[in-house]
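Supplementary material to the annual report.
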Amino acid sequence: MNGSRSILVSLAALLLSASPALAGVPTVFPAEVPVGHTLEAFRQAVRPGGPGKDGIPSLDRPRFHSADAADAMLDDRDRVVGLYLEGEARAYPQRILVWHEIVNDELRGKPVSITYCPLTGTALGFHRGDSELGVSGRLVNSNLVMYDRATDSKWPQMLGVAIDGPLAGQGLDELRVIWTTWGAWKARHPDTRALSPETGHVRNYRRDPYGSYNPLSGYYLPESSRLFPVMAESRRLPPKATVLGFRTSAGAAAVTTHALRGEAVIDLAVGGTYYSVIHDAVLDTGWVVHNPRRSEIRVEDLQFGPQGVTGGGTEGLAAVNAFEAMWFAWKAFYPDTLLYQGEEQRP
Amino acid sequence: MKLLRTLWESLRHWPLGLGLAGGVALVYGGLFLWLTGDLGGGGGGGLHATFPSWERVWEARGPFHFEPVGLIEAGPLVWTFSPVNTLVAWGLGLLLGTNLVLAWRLRRVSRICGWQASGSTLLSSLPALLAGGACCAPLVLIWLGLPLARALASMTPWLIPLATLLLLASLVYLTMALASSIY
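Predicted assembly:
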């Protein structure tokens, strides 16, 4: 009798451990990002985007090929989302992501989701545990609303906090991904691998239904109109001007790419503490560090490697996740955001 | 049945009408597939076809929009081929083409017989044209960047059945009008 019970218990344990639907995504509670509107207001602002749930299919078994093989498909100026984790570099071409929006990947045993929303121009990475993220078919502030396949909670990508479902109010565990060009990513990571167009789905990966980043056209032009309503508006920048944004429990801040390119280091005061945004000229992005004591960042001593920025006074400073976004979307999610447009506007 | 027979009889001995209806179906179907994204640019020249995903033939991507099963490259064009989407596109195109051809025919008959029905025949083809355009309206608006797209996006599931119903209703009306003019 005892023997059969122990077999049953072992079987149940085996089934539970084998079922990804029962394991959730790793979350952060309370969320470490500002939530600019109530969860109820977010829920009210959700709109159907056209395709239904999983109508835009996530890639759940992605394949990768070498940089040389990817060169046959990608121009050096084509956009990619880059990830460097556990000593391994991977590039996810925008022209594939635009058709799938989420790649449920795994790097050296670490399950991650690389997510991209074409309507807000945002790419974010998340740890996903044993679960997967999928495309709900809904939008808020034009931004992709993801769902997790363990609890069906709804997560606006740019917020990274569940607005509906059993995990409402909890935050996702983010990881830094880089919005850059294929040429720049290869220069930083010569041994990178790239997401293969052999995705298991038939799509025209040479065509972007919204426009083009190379050359810039269509929906991605800075002055072009957004399509869906937003929860907060600002005309300080063209709607789709690119900003690098970061948010912490202290608040949210954004710097224009123009300002970032013009200044090697930008120091910002957000919510009573200080942050430094450091321009990475090769990847044309910024690295953000929490710099509460306003330590001097020595530009000439900064070093940029696979893991980001080191040296020059950044030692011991905590990295803060940041990502590029279209201005209208950043302002809609973070209405109290600080906006830095350049040296001449420094208070 | 009588209506179908009338429809067939009015087209059977009219090769020009049949050709026009087929032509409209082809052009409209192609436009539909272009606007829904199945047909697009990016081809590398030459002719090349692969069909790796037949198992996805009934897998829906959205309302009345199905997963492609193959990729056909023809010159500069790339066609992500779904048999179901193609049937929907050309089916609607054929309905639209037949409507337009019948409206034209009715107009000619009424002129020959000296009726005053020409205005109403033109008017009757209007719902057909509107319905035909409705299928792709959200995509056109997205391309044009018009905020109206958001209102239409929520109506997308209804646009294709609505268009089909309007086209069928218009076809019945035109066939009945043609039958009463002949008999």
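Chain A has seven helices and 27 strands.
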